[in-house]
Design a protein that fits this description.
The chain is of the alpha/beta class. It is about 35% helix and about 15% strand. Helix 7 runs parallel beside helix 15 and helix 11 crosses helix 12.
Length: about 375
C-alpha cells in the first residue's frame, strides 16, 4: 500500500474539481485553538460529506445542532487525502500543540486512525455524553484498531465488492469468476489500494482478512499476479474505473459501493454484488485530535447518533450509515434511499463484510511487494 489517493479522494475530486477542495485563508485562523469563548466546535471533514441545502448552501443538520445545543460549528472541508491530512497535523500533534480542530474524519483502511491512537495523539470520547452510542451498528462496535470504541465513532462506511455491467455479462458472483472467466479477459480492473483489494482476495482464498500473515499475503499476491500475467486484469485503478465501467470499456471491476450508487443514476445496468466468499468494509471515523474539546466533540457525536439526524445526513451523502434506525426514518422521507442495500446493507450482507487487519497496513514488506505487483 502507498499513500496514493483512495476512493473518497478521487471520487470527490471528480465531483467537485480540485480547486473546490482547499479553503485558503481559513485554516490559519484555527491556530487560536480548537474552541473559542463562544463554544464553537471545529469540524474537519471530506468535501461533499454532509447534508447541504442547495439553495442556501448551509448544512441543515449543523444548524439544528446549534439550535438544540447553542454550540456553533466551524465546518471545514479540508481533508482531501488521508496521508496528506495526517502530514498537515503531524508536526502540531508531535509537538504537543493543538491542531485547531475538535473533530477530524479519517479512514480505517489507511494506517492513520490506528497510528493516531498508538501515538496517543487523540482524546478519549466522553461516553457519559454519548448515550446514543447504543445506536451504533453491531458490525461497527469492535474494530481491531479501537476495540471498545474509546477513541472513535464511524461517520460513514462503504463496501468493496464486485461491480459489473449486466448488459455485457452474465451475473458475476465470485472473485474466481472475475479473475478467470475467459469472456472477461482484458475487461476487468482491480483496485490499487492495499486496504481495499487484499481483504476481498483473502476471503476468496478462504483466509481471514482480519489476520494477514505472510502466507495469507502470498496467496493474495499469487492470485492477482496470475490474473495480471494472463491478461485477465486490464489494470489496477483508483476511482478511474468508474468512468470505464459506465462507458462499457470494462465489463467488471473490484469496486466501491458508493461509486456504484452514483453510477446507477445514469446506468441502470450496473450492478454491485458481494462475492460469495464475502466483501470488504471501510469506515471513515470521527476522532478528537489531542487538544480538541472533548465535551463539544462528544456532544456533537451524540447528536449525530440520533436516527433522525443521521437520516438527514444520509439522504444527501448516500454512503453506508452507521446509525441504527436511520433507515426507518427515511422510509417516510425518501424510501428509495432507505431500501437501497448499498446504503443500508441488510443483516445478511453485514455478516459477509470484513475489515482488514490494521497491523498489515504498517508492514513494510507487504507495501514493497504490493508496489511491485502494481508495477510501480
Amino acid at each position: 500500500m502507498t499513500d496514493t489517493l483512495t476512493r473518497q479522494d478521487l471520487l470527490r475530486r471528480a465531483l467537485v474539481g480540485g480547486a473546490a477542495l482547499s479553503m485558503p485563508g481559513f485554516l490559519p485562523s484555527l491556530a487560536r485553538g480548537a474552541t473559542d469563548a463562544t463554544g464553537t466546535l471545529v469540524f474537519s471533514n471530506w468535501p461533499l460529506y454532509i447534508d447541504i441545502n442547495e439553495k442556501t448552501k448551509r448544512h441543515p443538520s449543523l444548524d439544528l445542532f446549534t439550535k438544540k445545543t447553542g454550540i456553533k460549528v466551524k465546518y471545514i472541508e479540508d481533508i482531501n487525502d488521508n496521508a496528506e491530512f495526517f502530514g498537515k497535523i503531524q508536526a502540531q500533534l508531535a509537538g504537543g500543540k493543538s491542531t485547531g480542530r475538535d473533530i477530524i474524519v479519517m479512514t480505517d483502511n489507511s494506517p492513520y486512525p490506528a497510528l493516531l491512537i498508538k501515538k496517543g495523539w487523540v482524546e478519549k470520547l466522553d461516553k457519559k455524553l454519548l448515550p446514543n452510542i447504543k445506536n451504533l451498528l453491531p458490525l461497527q462496535q469492535h474494530p481491531a484498531w479501537d476495540p471498545h470504541r474509546e477513541y472513535s465513532l464511524p461517520w460513514q462506511s462503504g463496501m468493496t465488492g464486485i461491480a459489473y455491467n449486466e448488459k455485457l455479462t452474465k451475473p458475476i458472483t465470485s472473485v474466481d469468476q472475475l479473475l478467470t472467466d475467459p469472456k472477461l479477459k482484458g475487461k476487468v480492473t482491480v483496485l490499487e489500494g492495499f486496504g481495499d483489494t487484499v481483504p476481498v482476495i483473502a476471503l476468496a482464498n478462504g483466509d481471514n482478512p482480519g489476520k494477514i500473515t505472510d502466507a495469507v499475503f502470498k496467496r493474495v499476491l499469487d492470485k492477482l499476479q496470475k490474473a495480471k500475467k494472463s491478461g485477465q486484469i486490464r489494470q489496477f485503478t483508483g476511482n478511474d474505473y468508474a468512468g470505464m465501467l459506465a462507458k462499457g470499456d470494462i465489463i467488471a471491476a473490484i469496486a466501491w459501493s458508493g461509486d456504484v450508487v452514483q453510477l446507477q443514476a445514469d446506468n441502470k445496468h450496473l450492478k454491485f454484488v458481494l462475492p460469495k466468499s464475502g466483501g470488504g468494509i471501510w469506515t471513515d471515523n470521527m476522532l478528537i485530535p489531542k487538544g480538541g474539546n472533548v465535551e463539544l466533540a462528544s456532544t456533537y457525536m451524540n447528536f449525530y447518533y440520533q436516527p433522525s439526524v443521521a437520516a438527514m445526513v444520509e439522504d444527501y451523502v448516500n454512503y453506508i450509515c452507521p446509525v441504527k434506525g436511520a433507515d426507518k426514518v427515511l422510509l417516510k422521507k425518501d424510501p428509495s434511499v432507505a431500501k437501497n442495500p448499498l446504503i443500508f446493507p441488510p443483516p445478511s450482507w453485514q455478516k459477509q463484510l470484513h475489515q482488514i487487519d490494521p497491523t498489515s497496513l504498517f508492514n513494510t514488506d507487504f507495501k514493497t511487494q504490493w508496489q511491485h505487483l502494481l508495477g510501480a
